[in-house]
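Can anyone check this?
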Amino acid sequence: MSSWEFSWEFSWTDVCPSGLRPWVKDYNDLAPCFQEICLQLPILVLFAVFSSYYYGSHFRLVFRSETQRKAIRVRVAASIGLGLIPVMKIFYILRMHGKIYPIDVLLSCVQFVAWSVHVGFLVSSLKRGSLSQRGPLGIIVLWTSLLALASIWVHTNIHSEYWVWYVADLVVFGCYGVTLIAPGNAHFIRVQRTVDEERQALLTHTYTRFFEDIDESVLGPIQDDANFFSRLLFYWVKPLISKGVAGKLRKSDDLFDLPECLNMNRVVEKLQKQLTASAS
């Protein structure tokens, strides 16, 4: 073994006792340091990044049922526990033994930060976000990965002195997972315009986008006669294709079979006349 290889191995064993070896032949299991450095830390960082991203992207107001609210509150409590258990374990080890490896301190800090960010995401989900209380798919996948890693970690350290802490961590993970089963229901809250907004001029540059998933009935029924086979054969679009072949699609209004009185240009013209008359 060269001096460079010896110093590399020595430095890593100072950080973590088993170094970067992925496998321990004596126990026929993944090496603890490999799990912490190469598996747990990257997943926790991604978990924190995804939680912070979706926390910042919550802008839709949602009214949730009591079942969903209780499930999210239990999840908040479980996330707080998952963030505090590693920190409490570090203080326990320092008090009982007075020595701890740097990788354990780093992992505990990352766990605390990641779950703290996730708590913020969950709290914002009580009133904002998507209709599903389970959260985005990316966060669910990362949480499932953390659950699998926690199970492997318990299997690796079941005979260690601190096995109680790891089992407690896995139990809290289970409490979190149970809340994902709760269905409940929710609906988006339509923001009401205030009196001051209603007094503003109609022809301004301000606008409110149309949220098509708030209430589907606003758009009316679409293709009532469409069925499963129409998605495969596309026969419902045949009239539009025939109109295009005949050369009758020359402007946007030609896409719709509307009477002349509902033509877009005619509607805009009537609206402009009414606004001009009211202004004068």
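Reply from J.R.: I decoded it. The mean pLDDT is 79.
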